Amino acid sequence: MLNKGDKAPDFKGVDQDGKEITLKDFKGKKLVLYFYPKDNTPGCTAEACDLRDNYSRFESMGYKIVGVSKDSEKSHKGFIEKHHLPFPLLSDKEAVILKAYDAWGRKKFMGREYDGIIRKTFVIDEEGVIIDIIEKVDTKAHSKQIIG
User: Fold this and answer.
1) 49 assigned to active site
2) 96-129 pLDDT, tens per residue?
């Protein structure tokens, strides 16, 4: 279980354009790493669009944003184009990054239990240390939860 103050687990993933992205790419920058269940679903779209709408504030405060789900690169590309998202989305089909960040586990929906993506966000400082973990994500006002 990850906690504030822990070193963020290193990760390597491929974005919507097939470009490899790692935690090391953000050394010296603050990173908002958010995990979400599925492209083009109502909650995930609201969350991504809220982050998009506040992106200039994040940038002015030195933050970069990266989203992660199990969706394919092609799905991510369509999601980004449809909603004009200014940040990359990583495809984690094998749930390697999701598991490293405790964002994969048992979920319950309509009385059914299954393994799936747990929506959560990690805020990582310039040195790769977790400074905040948001586990109860408000998809419509997520930016406020991160930067107030």
Assistant:
1) no
2) 999 999 999 998 878 889 999 999 999 999 999 9
| Cβ 47 vs Cβ 137: under 8 Å | yes
How far is the C-alpha of 50 from the C-alpha of 75, rounded, in Å? 19
The pairing of strands 89-91 and 63-69 is parallel
CA dist., res. 122 & res. 116, Å (int): 18
pLDDT on residue 148: 84
Cβ–Cβ under 8 Å, residues 33 and 124: yes
The three-class DSSP label of residue 49 is helix
**For the whole model, what pTM was predicted?**
0.96
Query: For the chain, what are the domain ranges?
Result: 28-147
| Pairwise CA distance, residues 30 & 18, whole Å | 23
Q: How far apart are CA 64 and CA 81, in angstroms?
A: 19
- Of the residues 21, 32, 44, 85, only one is catalytic, namely 44
**Chain-centre distance for alpha carbon 1:** 17
Q: CB of 32 within 8 A of CB of 146?
A: yes
Give 28-147's CATH code, choosing from 3.90.830.10, 3.40.50.10240, 1.10.1240.10, 3.40.30.10.
Answer: 3.40.30.10
